Backbone:
């Protein structure tokens, strides 16, 4: 399965984020028991997770459990948060957030709130692209209590594959109240 999108569509849908401290004040979509069972960084690919949106809800952000690695100075760049339709054939929205939201050291929850709520299909995927490599990236935590039925590895334009750890990424979706 390949993603069908264009650079123009991705750029046209890029939103902006509001930087806020990590909190769990908003209703969230999530999987697992919130116990970290491991972490990974995916150079050349990304962390993907599937969700079902409750009726009359909008997405207002994400929470990602992880930590940055690489040089002590934070890269002066952003990472991408893609929202894709159920069959992964279309990018319905792209948001960006600064790498500086993640610190080096121990993994912790990082909250990315969007300036406005975004509409996504009832069944949708979130994919993260940190453009990771040997000298920079983010380790994203995973939880094996779920068996991994909701997570994949891939990005728009790259075929999605099963994870190799039988768990789900510790990525949550924040909803408007």
Residues:
């Amino acid at each position: 399965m390949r993603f069908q999108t264009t650079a123009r569509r991705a750029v046209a849908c890029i939103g902006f984020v509001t930087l806020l401290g990590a909190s769990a004040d908003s209703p969230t979509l999530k999987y697992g028991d919130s116990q970290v069972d491991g972490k990974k960084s995916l150079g050349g690919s990304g962390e993907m997770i599937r969700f079902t949106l409750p009726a009359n809800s909008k997405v207002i952000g994400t929470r990602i459990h992880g930590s940055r690695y690489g040089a002590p100075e934070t890269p002066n760049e952003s990472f991408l948060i893609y929202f894709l339709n159920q069959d992964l054939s279309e990018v319905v929205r792209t948001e960006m957030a600064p790498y500086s939201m993640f610190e080096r050291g121990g993994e912790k929850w990082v909250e990315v709130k969007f300036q406005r709520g975004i509409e996504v299909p009832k069944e949708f995927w979130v994919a993260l692209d940190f453009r990771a490599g040997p000298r920079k990236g983010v380790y994203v935590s995973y939880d094996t209590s779920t068996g991994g039925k909701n997570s994949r590895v891939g990005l728009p334009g790259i075929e999605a594959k099963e994870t190799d750890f039988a768990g789900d990424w510790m990525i949550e979706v924040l909803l408007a109240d």
Summary: The chain has one helix and 15 strands. The CA atoms of residues 68 and 103 lie 5 Å apart.
